[in-house]
Amino acid sequence: MAIGQRLGGATSKRGGRPGARRWSILAFVVSLLVGVLAPSSAFAATSGSSGSGGAQGVSAHSITIGVLSVQTGPLGTEGTTNLKAFKAVVDWQNAHGGVYGRKISLDVVDDATNPNLPIPNVRKLVEADHVFALVQLDPLAVVIAPYVKSIDIPVITALSGYWGPNYLPNVFGAYGNATGKIPVTTTIPLIMKKLGATDVGSFAVSIAQSSVVAAQDNNLGAKAIGLKANYLNTSVPIGQPNFSPQALALKKAGVDGIYSAMDQTTNANLMQGIVQNSVGAKVVVLASGYNPQSAQGVNDTYFQNIVTTTAELPGQLTSNPRVKQAIKILQKYGGPTTVPPMLDADEGYNVGSLLVEALKVAGPHPTDAGLIHNLHNVTDWLGGLNIKPMNFKNPGPYESINSGGQGLCAYGMKLVGHKFVDVTGLVCGKVVK
Predict the structure, then answer these.
(1) Could you confirm whether domain 29-181+320-406 is CATH 3.30.360.10?
(2) Contact indicator for 285, 260 with CB cutoff of 8 Å
């Protein structure tokens, strides 16, 4: 079936705002528009923060965790889904006795898609509310890195946004390393090759460096496995309405495999251009595609048969016991209503799962220093919906990829009607740069 061709019988047209699978792309754009950089003096720690190693936020019956979320603004839809899934895991753990008899109490703040809010919000959580540890669900909240480093408070993160190349021993990614060098991998090119691509073309929005790097690296990865890569466009303005010139350029270059590291809205316009200009692509991979919004609004017409990838267990694998458990927890404890869980629900679920693991290894008399030390001794955590284990003792040098294997494997999921279908099985690549 051709890209963009609608299946008969599936007629539901659900409304909804287009979102983004890779938050870092849209987050980078928002940060540039608002102005995210702050002087280094803004991060100086004050007395009373967690740097002393004391067990603030801990009582006989509860342990308080600060949560930097985004529930309103342009990232509000994704952030609300993420937060609901995270809370569902915490509520499930509390319903089963908490951790060492303590209930997990959440102190949630809304950064409102405003990169100027995470710094005062994290200060409030640490210095006024005296939370024990932090959870970062807001991609713009990576600006708190100098502050949390200075006070050495534990941070569990969804890998939303980019924390930078320098290792932060108190920051733990739930499904890949939070820090490190950005790698070139062959995973997505292998998925494209498996689905028939021989010549790859990649797109990026110019304003987002994370998008540009992803597109460039995809072409490098494609060449590393013997594919051609005759098209690269990293100068697309976000929201570009007309892609007919680019569609014609793809045809002229002979490209039959298209990869886009752009946001969902720009991707919708790209797909319209591809379909209307009859670009004969064998596979189109959208980094932002694995979400219900791919089958809503205009996407319902133009996104048919696109492929997206997920480095977590797809919610469609309902025979998997961990997927079964995730669906049960999300349904019972107020998680996102979308079943099976996808994208942001996966991320929130994974972060909640790692938080519970971190509190368990911290022991019955937790301190922030003890949590960090003990979690670094965990070498094979296979939790949440991760595909491969996480090694926190020797995480490896790369951002998003852990030495235990998590981040190098993915499923290729094709949108057919209103459902994503696994069309590749598990595909594992390697780092080539």
Answers:
(1) no
(2) yes
